[in-house]
Specification:
Blueprint (H helix, E strand, L loop, with lengths): L1 H8 L3 H26 L4 H19 L4 H22 L4 H23 L5 H6 L7 H20 L1 H9 L1 H6 L4 H23 L4 H15 L3 H26 L3 H25 L3
Helix pairs in contact: 1-12, 2-7, 2-10, 2-11, 2-12, 3-4, 3-5, 3-10, 4-5, 4-10, 7-10, 11-12, 11-13, 12-13
Length: 275
Amino acid sequence: MILNNVFSMLAYDFVIKALIVGVCISLCSSLLGVNMVLKNKAMIGDGLSHVAFGACAIAACLNWAPLIVSIPVVVISAFIILKLSEKSKIHGDSLIALFASSSLAIGYIAIKLGGLNKDLDSYLYGNIYMISTTELILTLVLTVVVIGAFVIFYNRIFSITFDEDFSKSSGVRTEIYNIIISILCAFTVVIGMKVMGTLLITSLIVFPVLSARQICKTYKHVVIASAIISVLCFVIGIITNLAVDLPVGATIVVINLIVFIILLVTRLIMNKSPR
């Protein structure tokens, strides 16, 4: 009976759009997350999601298209965070917290002033079944760009992930690659908010990479495993939502958490077992 309900829902266009966008965002988040997690910059995604929340809230109050406003705002914010963390006395985590808390406060005030209280949940937790054709096209383009960037610049991304100083001394223009990753992350966060919301989008960046690291020892294997884990967790999450009617974003996070715990426990057991 439950499976029949799931298959019957798959006949609707909005569910197909949700699946395509969710799989693409999961893939992009996991690929970008490898670099960010291994460089201890995973919380940039959290900061950018809060910036996107503030931008979307202001755009909604002004009756402007949220994507048109939030994408340039978040891209500029990513660039500012990157530059200030390199050249100012404010450490990265503190700078991200400053951006995140300020943007969340501005967004919340904008929602209250604009009388948009009913839309608060969709900003905070996402609304994956309201994906527009424009957002679908943007997501597909973003996915092609992210995968293309990883294929073309794989060796240099690997290099700046593990030893940025050595890469810089070797002639690699690390600033450019850091900017590219930050911009791609900004696009992923903005579009991914529709899938997971402001409060949960960071989980797509962090969880798959942490899970992959429990079972993989090389960078390439972590990249591949995190992508597979991220996509599988999303698909299981949305199928669970269609079958049981649980919140999509929260369900995906819980499934990622369960996978992480299983892989962590498996690694600990294997490390303790006699060889």
